[in-house]
Structure formats: structure tokens, C-alpha cells
């Protein structure tokens, strides 16, 4: 009985740690999205300037973060 109760406690602790990590990553994604919005506004104000390259880089970063989230969930 003692053994089983100890195991349950350990599992709960691991779950809490995973949730904390996910929250941190979500915050990072929100920051990047805000940055994208600023660049889109710049495009609207100055249609002659080309920001396409910068936007592509940001999209790649977001994809990388999403992959990290999935990996942590499976751990």
C-alpha cells in the first residue's frame, strides 16, 4: 500500500511540471504573434517596403515551438 501511494504522488508532481513548461511556451508564442501584428501594421502604413522575409522567419519559429510542446506532452 505504501508503495502505491508514493508512486501516485510522483506522477502528480511530474504532471504539474509539464503544465508549467507548457504555460511558459504559450507566453513565448503570444509575444511572437504580437510582433507579427506590428510588422503587418508597418506593411499597411508603408506598402512599398518589403517585410516578407521577416514574416517567414517568424512563422518558422512558431512551428518549432509547437513541436516542442508536443514532445513535452508525450514525456
How would you characterize this protein structure?
This protein has helices at residues 2-45, 52-74. It has 75 residues and is mainly α. It has one domain (2-74). α1 runs antiparallel to α2. The longest helix has 44 residues, at 2-45. The protein starts with a helix and ends with a helix. Residues 38-62 are annotated as: Disordered.
User: Percent helix among the residues?
Assistant: over 70%
What would you report as the Rg, rounded to the nearest angstrom?
20 Å
Q: Please give the number of β-strands.
A: 0
Written as H for each helix and E for each strand, in order along the chain, the element string is HH
- Helix tally equals 2
Q: Please state the structural category.
A: mainly alpha
Low-confidence stretches: none
Total number of domains: 1
Shape: rod-shaped
Arithmetic mean of pLDDT: 60
How is the main sheet built?
A: none
Question: What secondary-structure arrangement, pairings included, does this model have?
Answer:
Elements: H1 2-45, H2 52-74
Helix pairs in contact: 1-2
Features:
2 helices, mainly alpha, 89% helix, 75 residues
In short:
Residues 38-62 are annotated as: Disordered. 89% of the residues lie in helices and 0% in strands.
Amino acid at each position: 500500500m505504501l508503495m502505491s501511494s508514493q508512486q501516485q504522488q510522483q506522477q502528480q508532481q511530474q504532471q504539474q511540471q509539464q503544465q508549467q513548461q507548457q504555460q511558459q511556451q504559450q507566453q513565448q508564442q503570444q509575444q511572437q504573434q504580437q510582433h507579427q501584428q506590428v510588422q503587418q501594421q508597418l506593411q499597411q502604413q508603408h506598402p512599398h517596403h518589403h517585410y516578407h522575409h521577416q514574416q517567414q522567419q517568424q512563422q518558422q519559429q512558431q512551428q518549432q515551438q509547437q513541436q516542442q510542446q508536443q514532445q513535452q506532452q508525450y514525456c
